[in-house]
Design brief:
The chain is of the alpha+beta class. It has two domains: 88 residues, Roll (Nuclear Transport Factor 2, Chain: A); 124 residues, no CATH class.
Length: 234
Amino acid sequence: MAPRSIVMGSLSFKSVTQAKKFISDKLSSLPVGPVPAEENHWLQALVQNHHNPEKQLRDVLSFVIVNTGRGFSMNINKCFAAVTDPDKEPISFSYKNNHIITPDPPKELIADVFRFEIKDQVNEMANEAFRSGETVRCAVTGQELLRKDVHVDHNFDGDNVTFQDLLNEFLLLQGLTKKDCEEMKLVSGTHGRKTFADRTFAQRWFDFHKERAVLRFTHKTENMSGKKRVREHF
């Protein structure tokens, strides 16, 4: 089988190995701190295709290299990070965790495929809210939020359930296990994201989620901190 060619921004490589070496060499040669602007195009391509939907950043102002404080070799204690707000900490990311370098997401991220399948419902809620105003209220803090600071989250207060609860219930109704899902065929969708090849199955999940999910607006930092506390691993 011929090596898979790689495109990152305006750069192209004959193989994944060649692309990885280019990135690793850049990480080695550049010091901790701001990354030169001429490198932004290929870093933007990587971060927009990240395996984790919450790191698929589209409003990146610049990139930096940060010291992770781990390891002893030249690259183990350094990584790239995206600056989305000058007043907040940069968002670090691994250059290997994306659909350009690694086309198929790791099996433990199969839940993210389910998340991507209902992304339109999330976007529709946000779009509808911001048609009538410039801000929405955070369900956790009561703070007025601009579009750039908003996450749409599952409201798990009271009798409402988390995304994980809904997914577990759906799989139970379908008679499926986690292993069954990991073996499902995936195809490339929007922006290189993986979707289910079985679109009838995907539609059943979409309809189930639309009927059962209770969504709310939160600040993106509140959303992530809450998930760290309560989110189960699929």
